[in-house]
Every structure is written in structure tokens, then in C-alpha cells.
Amino acid sequence: MTLEQLETLVKLMRGDMNSLAVQSAKLVLVDGLSQAEAATKLGTKPNTVNNGVKRYSEANQEIKKVYFIDN
For the stretch 40-55, what's the b/e string if a residue is b when 16 or more beta carbons lie within 10 angstroms of its beta carbon? Predict the structure, then answer.
């Protein structure tokens, strides 16, 4: 996922770019860190990172699905 794609999802989902969920998603989905690395960097629990990654990853997949975009 690109940063632009994540920013668009955040906007559409009325999220906050400064939230732990979005910061987690950015570190994992955009920057390529592991969830454990992201949790350490953000000083939060791995479950918090997982929730953010899951939320934005699933939203990305849903958008791709309805627009018939592969991968």
C-alpha cells in the first residue's frame, strides 16, 4: 500500500492520521515494518498494532474488490 492510498482510506473512513491505528498501519503496510517492530516503535501493545493494520488492510481489500483491482 502506498502512503497516498492509506491517506485516502483514512479520509474516507473519517480516521485521524495521528491515531495509533493509522500510525500502526503506516509502519506495517507502507513502511514494511513487522507488527512487533511497529509496536515497539510506537510504545504500544502488538494487539493495538494488529487492530489498526487489520482495519486498513481489510478496507483496502474491499475497495480493490469492488473496483476489480487484483493484488
Answer: eebeeeeebbeebbeb
Q: What is the pTM of this model?
A: 0.92
How confident is the model over 45-61, as pLDDT tens digits?
A: 999 999 999 999 999 99
Residue ranges per domain, the chain? 3-66
Fold for the domain defined by 3-66: Arc Repressor Mutant, subunit A (1.10.10)
Q: What is the 8-class DSSP label of residue 14?
A: T
Contact assessment for residue 10 and residue 17, using Cβ atoms and an 8 Å cutoff: yes
Helix 3-12 with 46-66: angle, nearest 10 deg: 90
CB atoms within 10 A of CB 31: 12
